[in-house]
Amino acid sequence: MFFDSFDCASWVLRAFDQLYAVGAKFDGNIKLNYTRLNLYSHTPLLIGNYTQIINSKNETLINGIREFYKTFQKRSDYLEQFTEAFNEIFVKKEFYFYYNDLYWYLTLKAPFIKITYYNIPLPGTK
């Protein structure tokens, strides 16, 4: 089957719907926790794909992207990680976004971020 991929979670939700449509049965006690993160920014700036960025030999850009993503790698000191992420989003107001094989630079604007939580029952279990 072919599915349009909007984000990982919505793809999974559509997959469960398709499985139910062809006869799959699901346990009604299981609910899916779906968290959506929305970023608010000015017009994104296209940086390029991986090859273009590496071939540019722009070490400032390359290191900036690496350091940005290091901020979000899981580590044992959650407070330090939260503080660094807070600094990137609310103080520096910048975000490097990877989407469809391209890197984009976002200058964030208030309210910066919105987190929405959903508790979704599996198809046929409502």
Describe how the helices and strands are arranged.
Layout: H1 8-21, E1 31-41, E2 45-48, H2 50-56, H3 59-71, H4 78-91, E3 94-99, E4 102-121
Descriptive account of the structure:
- The chain is of the alpha+beta class and 126 residues long.
- The protein has 4 helices and 4 strands, in the order H-E-E-H-H-H-E-E.
- Strands 1, 2, 3 and 4 form a 4-stranded antiparallel β-sheet that branches.
- Strand 3 (94-99) and strand 4 form a beta hairpin.
- Mean pLDDT is 86; it is low at 1-5.
Task: Please provide a brief summary of the model.
This protein is 38% helix and 33% strand.
Distance between the termini: 25 Å
Q: Which spans of ≥5 residues are poorly predicted at pLDDT below 50?
A: 1-5
Cα Rg: 19 Å
Class based on secondary structure composition and strand pairing: alpha+beta
Mean pLDDT: 86
Which bin fits the share of residues in helices? 25-40%
Q: How would you sum up the major sheet?
A: 4 strands, antiparallel
From the spread of the alpha carbons, the general shape counts as elongated
What's the β-strand tally? Answer: 4
Report the β-strand fraction as a percent range.
25-35%
Count of helical stretches = 4
SSE series: HEEHHHEE
Task: Give the tags.
alpha+beta, 4 helices, disordered N terminus, 4-stranded antiparallel β-sheet, 126 residues
